[in-house]
Amino acid sequence: MIEKFSNNQNWAKLAPFLGVLSSVLLLWFFKPHQAIFWALVNIPLYLFHQTEEHLWPGGFKNYINKVVNKLPEGEEALTDEKVFWINILLVWLAFLLFGCLAFFNIGFGLLIIIFSIMNCITHIIQAIKQKEWNPGLVMASLQFIISIFAAYFISVNGLTNQLLWWIGSIVFSVVVHIFLFKLVMSK
């Protein structure tokens, strides 16, 4: 079953549907004047980001293998299975877990936001470095702006122990991104 979902990023076919569903639920239950709204806003945004990365127009796996890793045709450092596990475990499940925990402490929402900001920065830096679009860049650019505001909003509207949560969120996000880069770049 995992092979079926991972092949050709079949899992990504769920991303736009889940993005719309999570947007509707977010707007139905929460309003932009609430900190929890901004703590959770990256869940639908990330799903739309994944749609651009892996479904339409897609091509993230090929972009990483050919442009970033400069691998010859037929060689892959980033495989369909790696893409599946990265996105399902490190995004969908982690965002679901931290989203639920944000109801108990809004700081967990900051983890989602900072993780998203770091991911957005990697897309933006790659675009500047390569002087070209990369899969996920359009949504990453939009998501970056929204995430900066979201981080500010929850920091001044409900985040206790701000310094501790900011340091913890940044350290967590850096460690996870280093792990992801090593995983993506390794054969």
How would you summarize what this structure contains?
This protein is mainly alpha-helical. The protein has helices spanning 2-6, 15-29, 35-40, 42-55, 60-68, 80-101, 107-130, 137-156, 162-185.
Q: Can you tell me about this structure?
A:
It is built from nine helices and no strands. Helices cover 74% and strands 0% of the residues. The chain is mainly α. The chain has helices spanning 2-6, 15-29, 35-40, 42-55, 60-68, 80-101, 107-130, 137-156, 162-185. The chain has one domain (2-185). The model has no long low-confidence stretch (mean pLDDT 94). The two termini are 23 Å apart. It is globular and about 50 Å long.
Key phrases:
mainly alpha, 187 residues
Range of strand content: under 5%
Instruction: Label the overall shape.
Output: globular
| Rg | 16 Å
Number of helices: 9
Report how far apart the termini are: 23 Å
Overall tally of structural domains: 1
Unreliable stretches (pLDDT < 50, length at least 5) are none
* Multimeric state: single chain
Main pleated-sheet profile: none
Structural class: mainly alpha
H-E string: HHHHHHHHH
Q: What is the mean pLDDT?
A: 94
The count of DSSP E runs of length 2 or more, i.e. the number of strands, is 0
Helix content: over 70%
List the helices and strands and how they pair.
Elements: H1 2-6, H2 15-29, H3 35-40, H4 42-55, H5 60-68, H6 80-101, H7 107-130, H8 137-156, H9 162-185
Helix pairs in contact: 2-4, 4-8, 6-7, 6-9, 7-8, 7-9
